[in-house]
Amino acid sequence: MDEVAGAVADPVRRAILEMLRDDARLSAGQIAERFAISRPAVSRHLRVLRESGLVRDELVGRQRFYVLDASHLAPLTRWLAGFTRPTGWAHHLDALETEIHRTRRERRAEHPEENTA
């Protein structure tokens, strides 16, 4: 997770991830032409993203194409979600859902014969 967090900490790398999210598959040249920084600098960012597992590359002829692999973001996403709590209606709906589950469980315990069908 630290490697992924380090990779997404840079604004250029986040922009590359957004490009690949929107365009699915881009060559290194297509990615580099969208930045004011040098092509070798973009290549270094792509290497960091590839080493963190966030992008995969494929060599086709003389061109290297990149695609997003968002599955490596899941541990970071789960960790970040722990810092957000439901507010407003989301909190009330979560409480209602908990109460419904508790009531159903108690009914099943009180009337087990109704649940055999």
Strand percentage lies at: 5-15%
By DSSP (H or I, 4+ residues per run), the number of helices equals 6
Low-pLDDT segments, ≥5 res: none
Distance between the termini: 46 Å
The sequence of SSEs as H and E is: HHEHHEEHH
Largest sheet: 3 strands, antiparallel
- Report helical residue fraction: 55-70%
**Cα gyration radius (Å):** 23 Å
Structural class: alpha+beta
GO molecular function, one term: DNA binding
Organism: Saccharothrix longispora
Keywords: DNA-binding, Transcription, Transcription regulation
Domain HTH arsR-type: 1-88
Outline the structure in words.
Helix 1 (2-8) packs antiparallel against helix 4. The chain has 6 helices and 3 strands. A 3-stranded antiparallel β-sheet has the order 1-3-2. The protein has 117 residues and is of the alpha+beta class. The longest helix is centred in the last third of the chain and has 22 residues, at 89-110. A hairpin with a 2-residue loop joins strand 2 and strand 3. The protein has helices at residues 2-8, 11-23, 28-32, 39-51, 74-81, 89-110, and strands at residues 25-27, 55-60, 63-68. The mean pLDDT is 89. The chain starts with a helix and ends in a 7-residue tail after the last helix.
